[in-house]
Amino acid sequence: MSKLFFLLSGENPTMPASEAKAILETEGYTYKINELMDQVLRLEASTESVKAIPVRSAFTRLCALELFVSDANYTDIAKVAQETDFKSVLNPGESFVVRINRIKNYADQTINTMELEIKLGHQILKQAPEAKVNLKHPDKTFIGIITDEKLVFGLKLTEISSKTFSERRPRKKPFFHPSAMPSKLARCMVNLAHAKTERTMLDPFCGTGSSLIEATYIGCHALGVDAAKRMVMGCRKNLHFFSINAEGLVLADARKLPFFKVDCMVTDPPYGRSASTLKSTTRELVQDVLTSAYSLLPEGHRICIASPKTLNIRTIGISIGFKHIESHFAYVHSTLTREVAVFEKVPKI
Predict the structure, then answer these.
(1) What is the pLDDT of residues 305-340, one digit of tens each?
(2) Per-residue pLDDT averaged across 299-309, rounded?
(3) Rounded to whole angstroms, how far apart are CA atoms 170 and 178?
(4) CA–CA separation, 276 vs 299, rounded Å?
(5) Which phi-psi region, left, alpha or beta, contains residue 20 (left: φ > 0; alpha: ψ -120 to 50)?
(6) Distance, CA of 227 to CA of 193 (rounded, Å)
(7) How far, in Å, are 50, 173, 231 from residue 236 at the CA level?
(8) By C-alpha distance, which of 297, 215, 230, 284 is closest to 255?
């Protein structure tokens, strides 16, 4: 177990940390949370676990080996840096660079990030005189994050680009629908559902195929259902555009799913003016789908489902027999905030 830290996206206050933890759990890695800071998650886990994050995560920006944590002022940083063994992570002759990122305005009046990069670079050279500074193409990058009036400093292990998600945003797909889920949110929900490679994930309201695309990219068998032929054909068009072969696309009523078992479920049932709710109220639709999900999922398996915050989906899931794991809230517009809820099937008492 090593001390690590993850730099998280600021796009949502709670989902990024939960997604990172869900990825480690799904991949079978043991971890211990040391501290959750503003956009930084400090934890203990094997460095091997970091390999899963770039493959799966939507909301993690980078992973680093933690070397020290200090109050965000020059005196405390200098003291802790002097006590840090930088030679343990720098081989003779290797080049390095120091980069400092600031979250929001933390320590804005106390720390000049460029000045701090220079000071820490000098300290590293003092301890490892055989190393060299290379600002453009270093062998290793030391990264510091100023957040919550502290500096978290370490060696960057991996950096994650979000460019691929922007290339899959709803309006970039050949078939567009205004209710389509953003690719990042879809990927996060797939992770929160503990979707595993070579296992089957079902979306009973597959729509334009966002969840199917994101699940396939992490190695799942994706199965989609929709009651509207237009949506099934549009979803098929989008999958073909991204060279994805789904496990199956089925024209069916999500309230009466034609399956016996799936490993996990991810879905965003229709609600609002631009979506059809199968002549049911949103509450009735969500209740019926969760009831179907309970019969399809094995014990200990999960469904991640989005709904309007006003629906209070937590109570619906619990009344059916699910264990409510967590909920996250994502603002869409002035009349809609999504609640992204995660439920786990447990035996009924």
Answers:
(1) 999 999 999 999 999 999 999 999 988 888 889 999
(2) 96
(3) 8
(4) 31
(5) alpha
(6) 23
(7) 33, 11, 8
(8) 284
Among 10, 7, 6, 25, CA closest to 342:
25
Buried b (16+ CB within 10 A) or exposed e, 59-86: bbbbbbbbbbbbebeeeebeebbeebeb
Distance CA 32, CA 46 (A): 10
Determine the average pLDDT of the residues in 24-48. 97
Q: State the Cα–Cα distance between residues 180 and 10, nearest whole angstrom.
A: 22
Opening angle at CA 126, ends 121 and 128, nearest 5: 90
| Residue type present at position 286 | V
- Find out whether 30 and 45 touch, Cβ atoms under 8 Å: yes
Instruction: Write down the H helix ranges in 148-279.
Output: 163-166, 183-192, 210-217, 229-241
Structure-block tokens of residue 231? 């949506």
